[in-house]
Amino acid sequence: MVVPGRVASNVVFRLGSQLISYSTASDAVLQDIARIFPRAETSIDNSKLKLIEGEFADVESAMLALSKRLLADFDGDLWLEAAALVAPGGASVMLCGGSETGKSTLTAALCEYGWKMISEDVVFIQHDGIIPQIVRPISLREGTAERIAQQTGKSVQLFDDRWYLNLNAVPDPDFKLQLPLSAVVAIGSVDPDYPGAICVQPTPPEQLVREFLPYSNALHIDGGVEFFLQSLQRSICASISGGSIAERIDAIDRLIHR
Question: What pTM, to 2 d.p., does this model score?
């Protein structure tokens, strides 16, 4: 069934393969969302539409509701705290790391270098080896945009001094990221003001799995650990610690082109 690009009084937005409508949002919140998200085409497939319902006092509550709605579609699949991106040349990379490792900062910076963002914060790996698109704005801490500009020369535009989404980094709706990935990189924590010297080390897949079990649901699904390990096979696996944003980007670029 095809419906026009509005549902009731609400605009339909497209984020990669996702079609989204905030069915109960106020006009004021919708106007703010429309400054971040692109609108969908004139007509859409209603069966693919995700309605986001609830009381939205501001953009932050709307973004949280979006995250919960998107993540609910992949209940039962393997997930881990990571970001999945595709380089301009087609190489695919997963950045694994817990909170305060600079993963989101690095993801935003890579998007400014022409990379496509498949998923950020949480990456799902389906049983068929597909990493689904879960494109949504990245929440960046205060001062992050300034650090990216200082260390890379790239200007990062934020909404409400917090939300980042580069529409040029949103993949085509039909794009599917399939295992194996070109590289899987463990991102170590770093002091943004004193990052220290960069260190890049080859890391066996088994070690990466052990390190990131606490940041995944692998122990809580049948065969999860084995599937996690299998997902890393045939990928370059490495760990990066220290280094500026620009140095980390350069290290990742060398990994996928070696």
Answer: 0.88
Write the single-letter amino acid at 39.
R
Report helix, strand or coil for 59: helix
- Residues 256 and 258: their CA atoms lie apart, in Å, by 6
Average pLDDT over residues 223-247: 95
CA distance 15 to 136: 7
The residue count for the chain: 258
Q: What is the CA radius of gyration of the chain?
A: 18
Mode of pairing for the β-strands spanning 236-241 and 183-187: parallel
Name the β-bridge partners of 21.
Answer: 12, 51
- Which H or E run contains 106? helix 103-112
Instruction: Write down the residue that tokens 């070109």 correspond to.
Output: 182
Q: Two tokens at 90?
A: 């087609």
Element (H, E) at 197: none
Q: What are phi and psi of 134, to 5 degrees?
A: -135, 75
Q: For residue 155, give both structure tokens.
A: 């200007």
- Bridge partners (DSSP) of residue 44 are 3
Residue with tokens 């045939």: 234
Structure tokens at 193: 């003001």
Domains of the chain: 2-72 (no CATH), 78-257 (3.40.50)
Residue 34 CA to its chain's centroid (Å): 20
Q: Which stretch of DSSP H or E encloses residue 109? A: helix 103-112
Burial 159-191 (b: 16+ CB within 10 A, else e): eeebbbbbeebbbeeeeebebebbbbbbbbebe
pLDDT tens digits for 81-104?
Answer: 999 999 999 999 999 988 888 899
Alpha-carbon distances of 29 from 25, 35, 49, 144, 208, rounded to whole Å? 6, 10, 19, 25, 41
